[in-house]
Amino acid sequence: MTTRLNTGRARDLRRDQTPVEARLWSRLRNRQLDGFKFRRQLPIEGYIADFVCIDAKLVVELDGGQHAEQAEYDARRTAALEAAGFDVLRFWNTDAFENIEGVLEMIRRRLRAESF
Question: Considering only CA atoms, which of 44, 57, 51, 48 is closest in space to residue 21?
Fold first, then answer.
């Protein structure tokens, strides 16, 4: 379910991405990761997913410090995305800054598992 509100909000989030989102996006865009196409800030089931590979049914979420206090919300969000048929990988922002190669390898492993 996508609403105009979600679409407009997603557009704003794409325009105003955080530095960590920009860092990961620079490595996912243009099919750079094993040829898989990712989209960013995509509305799905009333939520806006950070990064999505439709073909692999994969959502990649980056969590900042505020997510430590909103575990219940994140659990509902993950459950809704999974109910829509997506697997969800979550990474802390610090991981994407300090270990981008490790984050990309975990995403790559999930993508490879799906392609068999």
Answer: 51
d(CA 43, CA 21): 16
φ, ψ for residue 90, nearest 5 deg:
-115, 140
Amino acid at 106: M
> pTM score, two decimals?
0.85
Could you read off the pLDDT of 86-115 as tens digits, one per residue? 999 999 999 999 999 999 999 999 999 865
* Assigned CATH for 4-114: 3.40.960.10
Residues of the chain by 3-state class (helix, strand, coil), percent to 5: 55, 20, 25
CB 52 within 8 A of CB 41: no
33 to 3, 38, 94: CA distances (angstroms): 30, 9, 21
Q: How far apart are CA 31 and CA 23, in angstroms?
A: 15
